[in-house]
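Journal club prep, notes for RB
We'll compare a predicted complex against what the paper describes. Inputs for the S-adenosylmethionine case:
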Amino acid sequence: MTYDETGVERTIARLRREHPGAAGDLDQFHIGGADAVGMLIDGLALTEGDTVLDVGSGLGGPARQIARRTGSHVTGIDITPAYVATARDLTAGTGLDDLVRFEAGDIAAFAPDRPFRAAITMHVQMNIEDKTEWFSHIARCLAPGARLAVWEVCGSADLPWPMPWSLDGTDSFVVPADALHASIEQAGFTTTAWTDETPWVRAWIEKTFADGPPDGPSLPMLLHDGYTRVINFAAALTDGTLEIRRGTFTRAA
Ligand SMILES: C[S@@+](CC[C@H](N)C(=O)[O-])C[C@H]1O[C@@H](n2cnc3c(N)ncnc32)[C@H](O)[C@@H]1O
């Protein structure tokens, strides 16, 4: 199992003690950091009071960013208990406690009291074999006409391991962009945008790592073999083995 880090909160507390004052991009578990989340938010046309589901919410950076920028109520669900505990810990004291909450669980078993007005999912489906079923679970949690924004890894399944989502490839199910797009539509979504953001991502990687690893705490420090995983990912995006797609969809009535 790839996402089996424990003691993440303790590691973050230690990193913050060692790097006082440095914010770091610790809680954005995808390529493109907070800038990528900003692009997804633009596509969701959210207003204050909307309800948003973040599927596979990780350490909670995207959920907090959405709430902070839009005033929406965001629920994050994630299958890894240690990440959910860390997401809650990082939210405490930010003033966002009334807007953001995190639940531990599999989206397959999640039954919300009320359908959400919007959803995001970032860098989760690479671990899911049946992608139509996965996006059907998301559709089931949404009101008709609700928006879905995705930030997804697509391309060749033949990759150098480890990658951020898989240590050895046994739990990786990466497919080409066309196949992923078809699965999302088969799950009951209508496409508004399906954009190849790989050029943007390459420029982001160059800018972010121009002077080597950024100073201060960063996500690879929390993960087993974190730097190798990020370097392999960046290389596959640079040589075209992988691409990043940004999608915006509407849940069909
Ligand atoms: C690469 S991380 C991305 C986290 C977050 N979306 C972000 O971009 O910061 C993938 C996350 O998906 C979660 N995950 C994988 N399968 C899941 C499932 N079936 N239901 C909910 N979460 C899942 C993992 O625990 C992990 O936190």
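Talking point for the session: The chain has a mean pLDDT of 93.
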